[in-house]
Amino acid sequence: MPIPTPVVRDICDGPPPKYVSPFVRLYRPAPFELSYLSWGRRRYGDWAIEPAMHEGWHYFVVLGGTPTLVVGGREIVTEPGAVSIGDPDCPIGHRDEPGRVCQMLTWIWRTPPTHSALRPEKEGYVRLYLEPAQLRRMKQLHIQCREAVADSNERSMLQLRATRLLMDLCLLEACEHRREPDAGFRIDLAIQYLRNHVGDQQPVKGLCEYLQISKASLNRLFHEHTGKSPREFSQEWRMQWAREQLLSSKKSVKAIAYALGYRHPPDFSRAFKSHFGVTASRVVRQRVRDEPQQGLGAAPRIAGNGSAEGLRLRLSRTGR
Question: Domain 183-318 maps to which CATH number in 2.40.50.100, 3.20.20.390, 2.160.10.10, 1.10.10.60?
C-alpha cells in the first residue's frame, strides 16, 4: 500500500511567489498575532495554489469573482461574501477558471478565533456568508490591520488585537443572524450547479455542500419545486444533455459517456436506452446517415420513424 505524501505547511517566508500580482502586498509581522496578511486581485485559474496547511487559523473572504476553494479534500465554488475559516491542520488551496480574476482578503492568525462558534474542528473549517454591509465592514477592518502592521510598535499591536475582536464580532453576527435564503433562489442555484457539473454522477453531496443545507432539506426543496428528488432531476437533466449532444454535435457515444462521468460507456448506453427507449448508438448512426444528404443540398426528409428529426421527435415525447 503506497504511503501518502505528507502535506507541507505553507510558511510565509521569502519573496512573494510568482502568482502574486503587483497589487497584492504580503506581510510577515513576527511580533504580532498575525502571521500573514494579503489582499487584492488573484488569477487562481492561471496559478493555482495547491492545498497546504498554514501556521495559524486561515481566514479567507471573497470580495469578487467565484474562485474555487479547495478545503478538506473538497472543491467548493465560492461567491462574493463567502468566508472560510480553516484550522491550522486543514489543507487549504485555491483554484479558478483560466483567465478569471477574483478579489479576496486573507488573514492567518497565530491564535484561534475569539468565539467558539467561529472555531473550526481539528483539521476542519467553518463557512459562512456576509451581507453587503458586513462585507464592507470586513474590508475596512482589513485596512486597519494593514495600518497596524505598517506601524510595528506597541500601540499598533494593541490596535491589531482590538481589530481582531471587531472582525470576529462581525463574523459572529453573520453566523448568528444569517437570513434564510429564498427557496426559489435556492432552487435556481441548485439547477445552475447541476448544469455546471454535468459529469457528477452523485450530485446530492455536492449540492448540500454548495447550498449549505442538509440532505433532507435538499430533497424537500426539489420535491416542492420539481416533483422529483435531486437524483432523479439530475439524471433527467444529464440524459437530456446527452440527447442534445448526440443529435447536434459530432461527439461519439464514448466521448459523451466520459463527459457524463461514466467510467464504462456501456453503462451510459443502458441508462440512455432505459430513459428514452432508443439506443444512443442508433441516434448517432441516423445522424451520420442524414448529414451527407443535408451537405449535398438534397431535399429534407419528412420527419418519420427513420430520420434524425423523427428520432428527435420521439425522444422529446419520451423525455419525461
Answer: 1.10.10.60
Topology alike, domains 9-176 and 183-318: no
pTM of the model: 0.51
What b/e readout covers 279-312, taking b as 16+ CB neighbours within 10 angstroms?
A: ebeebbebbeebeeeeeeeeeeeeeeeebbbebb
CA distance 108 to 112: 10
Residue 243, helix vs strand vs coil: helix
Which has the closest alpha carbon to 6: 89, 108, 124? Answer: 89
- Tens of pLDDT along 137-160? 999 999 999 888 887 788 888 898
Nearest-angstrom CA–CA distance, 158 and 148: 9
Q: Is the distance from CB of 124 to CB of 71 less than 8 angstroms?
A: no
Span 183-192, pLDDT tens digits: 677 888 888 8
Backbone φ, ψ for residue 230 (5° rounding): -55, -40
The tens digit of pLDDT for each residue in 189-236 reads 888 888 888 888 888 888 888 887 788 888 888 988 889 898 889 888
As assigned by CATH, the class of the 9-176 domain is mainly beta
